[in-house]
Design brief:
This protein is mostly helical. The chain contains 13 helices and no strands. The longest helix is centred in the last third of the chain and has 36 residues. It is found in: Cell membrane.
Amino acid sequence: MKQRLGTAFKIVFLAIYLLLMVFPLYWIVITSFKPQKDIFSFPLRYWPKTFTMDNYINIFKISKFQIYIGNSLIVAILAALIVIVIAVLSAYVLARFKFRGHGQIMLAFFLTQMLPGFIALAPLYLMMSHMNLLNTRFSLVLMYTVGLIPFSTIMLRGFFQRIPSSLEEAAMIDGCSRWSALLRVIIPVMLPGIASTFIFAFVQNWNELFLAAMFIDDEKLKTLPVAMNAFILKFDVDWGSMSAGVVLSVIPTVVIFAFAQRFIVEGLTQGAEKG
């Protein structure tokens, strides 16, 4: 009896938790299809009488939403790829070799995660100004890359430490160089970790607002979070357009996650078969 009550309690708790997590997403999607008059109707309508695509049409006509999506994709994907390349190499070195200053480097990486990013705003602005990189996509790529390398390196170092060094030693005995063993043996096994780190880096870049708002002034170079922030007016919020923008902004993240998930599942399956 106690076991049944415990199971029932868990089911109810999980159902309530799921409802609380799903309902905001449901409300955003529904709001994006509501006419403006229905958004502020009272009592609240949990299912609109009529569906309209006006909110989606408006954000593309009025705000040039496709430009912002393109800018965010370019910056987020490019920065995430650069982060992965640098973090894989640095994590491999930190996981496989012991050298003077090894501990200090790891401590420095951890310390960078404890400091708020805005304290470096003034030095970054001066640096980008002297390099003539203000108001360019490359400035965002550079700052996002530098900001994510420490944490990404820490994440990948943990994955490297789980892979026995005997794998690459066996490959080197068979004639592979260390570089070849890394590319042909270790990297394929590391795909789950690399995919997870790439997703993390991409999502962080995709959602970043502070630096993008401070360093980009040109309307044609603004990223998606900056454009979404523009829907918050001085005395009002354009909830319909904002909801439509949120729905569209989630799509690239879901697509990339779904694509990377294939590699995660394949990597876990291969690990289970080898085990």
